[in-house]
Amino acid sequence: MTRLKLHDERHRVTRVGWLRAAVLGANDGIVSTASLIVGVAAASADRSEVLVAGVAGLVAGAMSMAAGEYVSVSSQSDTESADLTRERGELATQPDAEREELAGLYRSRGLDAETARKTAEQLMAHDALGAHARDELGISEVTAARPIQAAFTSAATFTAGAGAPLALAAITPADSLAVVVSAGSLVGLALLGAVGAQAGGAPPLKAAIRVTFWGALAMALTAGIGALVGAAV
What we know:
The protein is an all-alpha fold. The protein contains seven helices and no strands. Helix 1 (16-42) runs parallel beside helix 7 (204-232). Residues 1-7 have low confidence and may be disordered.
């Protein structure tokens, strides 16, 4: 007789919330800080001015990322809460209509009418709001908005990402600062893109090329603008 083993399945979708914030924060930290450093260096500024600009960019960027993520994800959380409150009221005032609505969703997914009705009845008897949140609204424990987690993750990973080009700027000779910071940052971006893709189950090479291309473009544009401004003043 074949014996089936129970096992825990680990799905990458459970990582989507923190992974998105982490990758976005680190990527933005590298690109924005490296671009700022390269742009200021291209304007013929001395090392102290470059480092001051880099530190200022790190602090401002980390706070901006944290605030932006918090506001954005809080808006999502507020919308989810409003939908759940409305759904809770509808379950209290018209449970029969809500049961039929849930059964209709299951019929649309391929269940026959009788199975859909019984499934809706059993799920609503167990956890009516949870069943409607999951199957009608698409809200679950995995995908629920977490503003505080997103804000701290973005700020921390932005700081970590921004620290790399800033450290390179601190130890590199002034005459080669722009080149070293640019090259080191592009390597960091490629590694970040590959690691993030691997963690999310996507092709690493494609992600690495994509993030490196946009990072190189950002740094090239900023360096060009810095050189023009430096020449003008």
